[in-house]
Specification:
With 257 residues, the protein is α/β, with parallel strands linked by helices. Helices cover 49% and strands 13% of the residues. The chain is built from ten helices and six strands. Strands 3-4-2-1-5-6 form a six-stranded parallel β-sheet, with helices on both faces.
Length: 257
């Protein structure tokens, strides 16, 4: 029965996806944030170890970026590793960092997308940070879609770092705290975030059925729409992505409460 169902899906889903693409709405998000969640639970469900789940998740990154390109997304932010994840055991963290850097290297080699690092690289092992920087530098002149690679990322840390950077900058100019307090506004802080100069995410997708933000783009997502998908990240398909885009387009965006 299971094989029969899979066979039916293989026949029907391409036609369903093609129809969804033909009917893509005009109101598409410019910036999509994706929380790639569920690798370990996927691995457990199929009787494999965590590293296998992370490898399966890494293999699904390039297809996602292709789907985003297909519908005209301008910016994608991929949350690959949080600051909290850095507290995992060395037995899991070391292979995970290797899988992430290999995946980012593979994206850079293609030169289809401009990679931009988002996160506290100083918290990462030196070799990991070096490889990530090299990958980003290798795509600095690419004119394609911008892909923010969030590794060692935490929203609270980003905001604290932005405020710290702002204060240091004004201190260097001789601005007093009283003077700064009189002119400080949200735009000033936004200019010091990792994503400065980019549009805020219109749509944030989280896989694995979890319905919480978890510290992802805390400042930037104040006006974002959210889409929660039950599929674990390695099982996230093109049809799931297109459904998220369609759901976004069908919402009436309200700013405020």
């Amino acid at each position: 029965m299971a094989d029969w169902k899979r066979g039916v899906r293989r026949v029907l889903y391409p036609a369903y996806e093609a129809r969804m693409l033909r009917r893509m709405p005009d109101s598409l998000p410019r910036h999509v944030g994706v929380m790639l969640d569920g690798n370990r639970r996927w691995a457990k469900a199929v009787g494999q170890d965590s590293a296998s789940g992370h490898r399966a998740g890494a293999a699904n990154i390039e297809p996602l970026l292709g789907w985003c390109d297909e519908v005209g997304i301008e910016v994608v932010t991929l949350w690959l590793l949080s600051t909290d994840n850095l507290n995992r055991s060395a037995a899991e963290l070391e292979p995970l960092l290797g899988i992430i850097t290999d995946a980012v290297d593979a994206l850079a080699v293609q030169r289809r997308w401009r990679l931009h690092l988002v996160g506290a690289l100083d918290l990462l092992p030196d070799e990991t940070a070096r490889r990530l920087k090299l990958a980003a530098d290798a795509t600095a002149d690419v004119e394609g879609m911008v892909v923010n690679v969030a590794v060692g990322y935490g929203g609270r840390r980003e905001i604290a770092g932005a405020v710290r950077s702002l204060l240091h900058g004004h201190a260097a100019l001789g601005t007093s705290l009283e003077e700064l307090a009189q002119v400080l506004d949200v735009e000033h802080i936004g200019e010091h975030l990792y994503t400065k100069g980019q549009p805020d995410p219109d749509l944030v997708i989280r896989t694995s059925g979890e319905q919480r933000l978890g510290g992802f783009l805390l400042w930037q997502s104040a006006r974002s729409e959210f889409y929660f998908c039950e599929a674990y990240w390695p099982d996230f398909r093109r049809v799931d992505f297109l459904r998220a885009i369609r759901a976004y387009a069908q919402r009436e965006r309200r700013y405020g409460t």
